[in-house]
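User: ok so my PI wants both of these folded by tonight, can you help

Assistant: No problem, let's get them done. Here's the first:
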Amino acid sequence: MSPAPQIQSTTPLMQTRLFAVEAVELLFANGEARTFERLVGQGEGAVMVVPVLSPDRLLLIREYAVGVERYELGFVKGRIDRGESPEQAARRELREEIGMDARRLDKLETVALTPAYSNYRTHLFVARELFPAPLVGDEPEPLELVQWPVSALADLRKEPNFTDARSLLATYLFEERAGL
């Protein structure tokens, strides 16, 4: 395996409230030089949580996704605020989005969305033994809560409005860890 390319320079191209775009000049071990652009997320990444209502039911949310311009089904999610751990962010998002916290919060995995273009990472969790603990969130409209049978996860993955790759992966990891 070749050694990692050397970063020759990094040039900021654009900055928004959520992201920065950088040009990165790389020098590869074979002498080839290339410039790549990458998206740099602001903050500490994100969390996604699979809330387990009962051994046979999960809780999803339906919210507007501006990137695809439609309402999407998915799991509780949000960014990690500065100074928060992924676990703290997961609990806060549970409270804000579904009005509950969890006595058990188990880490599934940490995943990169597009490692060739971004440093953005999402920490996936499963929340069990839920209890009421509402917290006002930053959602622009109330989120619709949707219960889904664990036995029908294959059907959920076929839903045309369940397309977030992180949510899809979370269903497979949940099944694997639960021994389904």
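One down. Here's the second:
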Amino acid sequence: KKDNPDFELVERLVKELDVPVIAEGRISTPEQARKMLDLGAYAVVVGGAITRPLEIAKKFIEVV
């Protein structure tokens, strides 16, 4: 299972499609959201990062 957003896929879709691309999935940090926008995503969905803050905090607790 991949833990990071699929930046490569979003970048490819933006280049190949003539429609707005909305990035969604495994985006859990502001930096990841910014990178998606920088790659050309029209918008970014960060549902789990906002609705499950304990899940995000757990990642930091495990590392620190």
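The beta strands are 22-24, 43-45. The first helix runs from residue 7 to 16. Good luck tonight!
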